[in-house]
Amino acid sequence: MREAIEMCLKRTFGEKFQSQKFAIRSSATGEDTKQMSAAGQMDTFLGISGLKEILQAIKKCWASQFGYISIQYKRRYGQYLNSPMAVVIQEMVACDVAGVLFTCDPLTGNPTIMTITANYGLGETVVSGSEEPDTIQFQRDHEGHLSVKSTSIGAKNRKVIIKDGEGMVLEEVCEDEKTNCCLTDEMIMRLGQLGIEVEKCYRSHRDIEWGFWNNILYVFQSRPVTSGTNETVFEIDHEFDCPLRTENDFFSVANVGEVMPGAMSPLGIDYLFRFISI
């Protein structure tokens, strides 16, 4: 396997691959689907350089699908424990700004709301939730026209950057950068248009990892939004608006399971049936 990986790296990047930095990440069956995202279940290794380090990271990435958290996640969703899994070797981009874009509201599935979360440096602080990022929301009309609905400036205390000879380094963000949005107005609109294009390509709402480097926009990953099939706020608010089918039907929002958590006795059933005709 070592020779095959080395040959592929040389064919793609040339002899210089030994000095380049790579991201080693998983691509498993059942991962990044509408039913389950499996985000963070398998290990990702960033800033890896040199053939020896790449091979070690590949082994660790493969082995991570048998970790406790990953196994419990698969059991929860009824997945095969020993599912087929590939490992992706991506060239690292030393991003100036990076983050995540949702083409619908990630909580309600509302398609008229698009959300960007971003921080300086690599997107690791955004994906892991270790820092409070900037949050920008778009309002989208039925024709796909975008307007910025709100902008929230996060604390952004630290950022992850790549340094030559040191790899990934966690740095403090200077005070001026903390108080300003890490994205310009042009970057925000470019991301909004990117989200619409990617959504049209896949014909579904997307969760997109992106990054800017030297004002060039890179897309690292696009997965379906797992909450996109949940009930919207409108559907929940109007759940009981439909008419009853017969005079014996009725709607109730009573928590019967909490009021009567156990089995009822014959006396209790007889007493209850005197008031409710079932």
TrEMBL record:
<dbReference type="InterPro" id="IPR013815">
    <property type="entry name" value="ATP_grasp_subdomain_1"/>
</dbReference>
<protein>
    <submittedName>
        <fullName>Putative phosphoenolpyruvate synthase</fullName>
    </submittedName>
</protein>
<dbReference type="GO" id="GO:0005524">
    <property type="term" value="F:ATP binding"/>
</dbReference>
<comment type="similarity">
    <text>Belongs to the PEP-utilizing enzyme family.</text>
</comment>
<keyword id="KW-0670">Pyruvate</keyword>
<dbReference type="InterPro" id="IPR051549">
    <property type="entry name" value="PEP_Utilizing_Enz"/>
</dbReference>
<feature type="domain" description="Pyruvate phosphate dikinase AMP/ATP-binding">
    <location>
        <begin position="9"/>
        <end position="233"/>
    </location>
</feature>
<dbReference type="GO" id="GO:0016301">
    <property type="term" value="F:kinase activity"/>
</dbReference>
<dbReference type="InterPro" id="IPR002192">
    <property type="entry name" value="PPDK_AMP/ATP-bd"/>
</dbReference>
<dbReference type="Pfam" id="PF01326">
    <property type="entry name" value="PPDK_N"/>
</dbReference>
